[in-house]
């Protein structure tokens, strides 16, 4: 090793060892993290044949589905959740209107939270609806383990033609905000 390189290395070591330091008091630090996570929750597509009873030749006015809601299963999530924004994206190609109810349930199927009923007009394309749950005002929401979706066909006086390719599509995603 040359004398110049050795002198430079010694100089760097001296500077590093002689730098100024100050004691850090970890009791005075205030560290908080506020992450948010976007989670897809529900997707379904219903065709006209889903709303028509082939045997009796009549419209089916209501379709209900219950699915698991696993987002709030851990205590870390429940203890640190501040709010949740829910984004509904809906497309209705039917000539009939619908109402949609989305209800959160606990393990015993007791209601923990219910969104405002959504009225979906006929021929609605790219309809977006946003609803927010503030956890501080809705503590029972933290017990949610299932979602129930109820889609009601509004009576228009006309019968559904199961041979038409029209569809009703619903996508629901949630953005969950935390403070750690």
Topology:
Elements: H1 3-17, E1 36-47, E2 52-53, E3 58-59, E4 62-68, H2 75-80, E5 81-92, E6 98-105, E7 111-114, E8 118-120, E9 124-134, E10 146-153, E11 167-178
Antiparallel strand pairs: 1-11, 2-3, 4-10, 5-9, 5-11, 6-7, 6-8, 6-10
Task: Give an overview in words.
This protein has 180 residues and is mostly beta strands. Helix content is 12%, strand content 45%. It has two helices and eleven strands. Strands 4, 6, 7, 8 and 10 form a five-stranded antiparallel beta sheet that branches. The protein has a four-stranded antiparallel beta sheet with strand order 1-11-5-9. A two-stranded antiparallel ribbon has the order 2-3. A hairpin with a 4-residue loop joins strand 2 (52-53) and strand 3 (58-59).
Q: Top keywords for this entry?
A:
about 180 residues, mainly beta, Jelly Rolls, five-stranded antiparallel β-sheet, four-stranded antiparallel β-sheet, 2 helices
Describe what is shown at a glance.
The protein has 180 residues and is mainly beta. It has helices spanning 3-17, 75-80, and strands at 36-47, 52-53, 58-59, 62-68, 81-92, 98-105, 111-114, 118-120, 124-134, 146-153, 167-178. 12% of the residues lie in helices and 45% in strands.
């Amino acid at each position: 090793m040359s004398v110049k390189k050795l002198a430079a290395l010694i100089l760097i070591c001296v500077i590093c060892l002689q730098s100024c330091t100050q004691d850090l008091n970890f009791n005075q630090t205030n560290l908080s993290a506020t992450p948010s996570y976007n989670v897809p929750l529900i997707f379904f597509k219903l065709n006209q044949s889903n709303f028509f009873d082939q045997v009796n030749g009549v419209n089916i006015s209501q379709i209900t589905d219950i699915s698991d809601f696993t987002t709030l299963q851990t205590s870390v999530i429940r203890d640190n959740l501040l709010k949740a924004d829910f984004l509904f994206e809906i497309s209705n190609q039917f000539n009939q209107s619908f109402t949609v109810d989305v209800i959160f349930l606990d393990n015993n199927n007791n209601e923990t939270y219910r969104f405002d009923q959504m009225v979906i007009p006929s021929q609605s394309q790219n309809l977006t609806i946003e609803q927010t749950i503030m956890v501080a005002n809705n503590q029972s929401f933290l017990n949610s383990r299932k979602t129930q979706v109820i889609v009601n066909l509004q009576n228009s006086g006309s019968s559904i033609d199961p041979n038409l390719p029209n569809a009703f599509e619903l996508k629901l995603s949630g953005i969950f905000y935390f403070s750690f």
